[in-house]
Design a protein that fits this description.
transferase; glycosyltransferase; 5-stranded parallel β-sheet; purine salvage; binds adenine; alpha/beta; binds 1-O-pyrophosphono-5-O-phosphono-alpha-D-ribofuranose; Adenine phosphoribosyltransferase; two-stranded antiparallel ribbon; Ade_phspho_trans
Length: about 170
């Protein structure tokens, strides 16, 4: 099965000049979704994982499925003021301006082995901020795991200290 057949290109979304990689055709097909989960799991292998940290919002789709398969915790990282208990925040630079992400402070214990998951690695700003959040809480980032990587945006250059794994590279 070719997963790329289930990823739709949308020109100029959400802004002119952006070629948006839309995973809704993949999510609408249970066989393709199961195949994507298997491919993401292959990247994780048989290392011990205490938690999958999924990034709002598209990182939640496969993140919960991965955690269920690995029989480990799923931990959401959310946009500001969405999580109800005490949070830890990380602000990061966007192309223009900045943004903030939050995690529940009690979600990760010191020494927990964490895999960060999202659908897309683009510039790497988001994933890099989530690595910092996990580390602030004492977690160990074992891998950053993505369905897709937009390699021309060179996120790996700003994430040299992390193990980055992507199922599909554009
Ligand atoms: O590598 P970066 O340049 O930081 O970009 C990648 C992020 O952008 C997208 O999320 P988006 O902000 O569109 O939010 P959404 O998942 O809620 O749609 C994507 O799901 C990643 O989280
Ligand atoms: N081109 C793109 N398609 C889908 N999600 C993205 N997140 C950042 N860039 C993206």
């Amino acid at each position: 099965m070719q997963l790329t057949e289930y990823i739709r290109d949308i020109q100029d979304f959400p802004k002119p000049g952006i070629l948006f990689k839309d995973i809704t055709p993949l999510l609408s097909n249970p066989e393709a979704t199961a195949h994507a989960v298997e491919k993401l799991l292959e990247k994780i292998g048989d290392q011990q994982v205490d938690a999958i940290v999924g990034i709002e919002s598209r990182g939640f789709f496969f993140g919960t499925l991965l955690a269920q398969k690995l029989n480990c915790a799923f931990i959401p990282v959310r946009k500001p003021n969405k999580l109800p208990a005490q949070t830890t925040s990380q602000t990061y630079a966007l192309e223009y301006g900045e943004d903030t992400l939050e995690i529940h402070t009690d979600a990760i214990k010191k020494g927990d082995k964490v895999v960060i998951h999202d659908d897309v690695l683009a510039t790497g700003g988001t994933a890099n901020a989530v690595c910092k959040l996990v580390e602030k809480l004492g977690g160990e980032v074992m891998q950053c795991n993505f369905l897709m990587e937009l390699s021309f945006l060179e996120a790996r250059k700003k994430m040299e200290n992390y193990n980055i794994q992507s199922v599909i590279t554009y």
